[in-house]
Design brief:
The protein is mainly alpha-helical and 138 residues long. The chain is built from five helices and three strands; from the N terminus they run ααβααββα. A hairpin with a 7-residue loop joins strand 2 and strand 3. The two termini are 36 Å apart.
Length: 138
Amino acid sequence: MTEGERLAKQDFQRLSHFRYQLRCFLRQSEDICRQHGVTPLQYQLLLHLKGFEGREWASVGELAERLQAKHHGTVALVDRCEQLGLVVRRPGRDDGRRIEVHLLPKGAELAARIAEQHQPELRHLQEEFQLPGWPRQP
């Protein structure tokens, strides 16, 4: 945007609406996670492991990227999830210095139950916004 271009009222309204809908989704997600005894970040870690494209595990670095978190913070999060019996660390298959984080059955089941409870709000967002990769509503 050049200096001469100004945002119109409609631009602010659109951004406000988007942020409001996003915050509603996040607040509801936080409540769902707490009902299941995990923090929203713990759930996000489980979700990213369950939904990682092409394989059933991820490295700490990959998880940090998905969470938009610092590496050391992600390590601490993995520690907490490991203590809860949700994930396990394993040495890398190709490089023993690389640590793979894998979902345990308890973590996979928890991720599935929480994700299921997110579906109504996801459908609402799908109605509000046409997002790339989402099926069109009839």
